[in-house]
Amino acid sequence: MEQExxxxxxxxxxxxxxxxxxxxxxxxxxxxxxxxxSLVVVAAVAVLIxxxxxxxxxxxxxxxxxxxxxxxxxxxxxxxxxKSGDVIAFYYNNKILxxxxxxxxxxxxxxxxxxxxYVNDEELIEPYVSNKSLGECDIQMPYQVPESRIxxxxxxxxxxxxxxxxxxxxxxxxxxxxxxIFRIWPMDSVGTV
Length: 193
Hints:
The chain is 25% helix and 28% strand. The chain is built from two helices and twelve strands.
């Protein structure tokens, strides 16, 4: 009987192996928990930064082609100053639209039948527009931008619905989300706007 009891007891090697297995499992659980915790913190910080300072937006539609294409992801800077030529994001009818700033409050806009834009009687040089067009325009030209408003237009002038119509009109500054500064997706189009 004493002989059988000795056979049932684990050897030193077996005990050492079991201790190593238990330590490995404990360390593995700690590593998984630590990694998961780090990912949650990084995700929370990323969400806070994107909500407070640098919102990430997805482009939908063709009104800003060729500058911005459908399904691209862009980053906006909420604290940036904007001027004529900058692309901004703003709220309109529970949507977010992206358009280019053409003129700010007090400036005079005039658009020819061929689509050439004049700001304060000076032709606006627009290398970002591929096809000039008057597009849908139901405001009387010349037009003075009201106080605390911004006149915006899409780069695809024939398809864009923008400040040239009374439907959208000039954008109030409090509706502006920020200046579009960077394209982040798809990878082949990453770069500044």
